[in-house]
Amino acid sequence: MSEKKVRWGILSTAGIAKRSVIPGIRASNRNEVVAVASRSLEKAQSFADELEIPKAYGSYEELLSDPEIEAVYIPLPNHLHKEWTIKAAQAGKHVLCEKPIALDEAEAQEMIDACKEAGVVLAEAFMYRHLNKYTEIKELIAAGEIGEIRGIHGVFSFNNPKDYNNIRYKKEWGGGSIYDVGCYPISAARLILGEEPKAVTTQAFFSPEHGDVDMMASGLMEFSNGVALTFDCAMWAEGRMEVEILGSEGRIVLPNAFFGEHKYDIIKGGKVVTVEKEASNPYALQADSFADSVLGGKPVPFSATDIIHNIRAVKGALDSAEKRERVILN
């Protein structure tokens, strides 16, 4: 008898769903995609035909009313995450919502409460956190491989300023580089350190050509014992996604920090040891982790508390840039 699988519906035909999440679900062990919805049936049907998805719906409500669907992935623009997560929960569907899960802490709490009341699983789609390289690196740090952590530097940038209709350039929709890619180094520092930041100071470049969103931001996020995350993120700069963990006796550098490449350098006394293993699909790992919770009742690895702390830090970074002042977080 074949193993039971979680039956997924996809709310929208977003590029991230097509490029990454749907292939990841299909590459996983305990999941399958059975439906997709768009506000246009023609668009949904074309998407379904191209990706060989059995069902297409011309509204999100129709997909949520399908009793066959157990879980939904929500890659909608950020300002719609709360509305459709709550509607999905009320329809009895488990929810994997794209990051950042909400625009602020209050929205996130409403989503958490709705899912708890409905008895459904809620997870935020930071896929990279499921990669084994982060488990390995945390174990190395705990074993004293690079001494005591003195600081973390993280960057995530890409260059796409000419796409003026991009949803990332609409401030009222939760656009901007901090929400879109700055959330990665922020969440990574929290993951690596295992604690929450105390305060943040951010400087940003807001572009009138792009809806006055932050097209580039640089920040300092304060943790305990004098440790800080320095980070930058951009949608109008040369692309990179690196994390460096600096210790008293060495450092660890991840050159491709947020995707499936299992490669990092341990640098001590000028000597470099490169650790490299077979790459993993973080979207598949994320889907199977979600299935463990839906089918097996296993607690999600990143709890509701984690969701709240993460959006508090991310929103604090944006608030700091907009107010041009240091923001206390905890």
Describe this structure in words.
The protein is an alpha/beta fold and 330 residues long. The protein folds into 2 domains: 6-125, NAD(P)-binding Rossmann-like Domain (Rossmann fold), CATH 3.40.50; 129-283 and 311-328, 2-Layer Sandwich (Dihydrodipicolinate Reductase, domain 2), CATH 3.30.360. 35% of the residues lie in helices and 30% in strands. The chain is built from 9 helices and 15 strands. The strands form 2 sheets. The protein has a 9-stranded mixed beta sheet. Strands 3-2-1-4-5-6 form a 6-stranded parallel beta sheet, with helices on both faces. α4 packs parallel to α5 (105-118) and α5 (105-118) runs antiparallel to α9 (304-323). The chain starts with 5 loop residues before the first strand and ends with a strand. The model has no long low-confidence stretch (mean pLDDT 97). InterPro entries: Gfo/Idh/MocA-like_OxRdtase_N, Gfo/Idh/MocA_domain, GFO_IDH_MocA-like_dom, NAD(P)-bd_dom_sf.
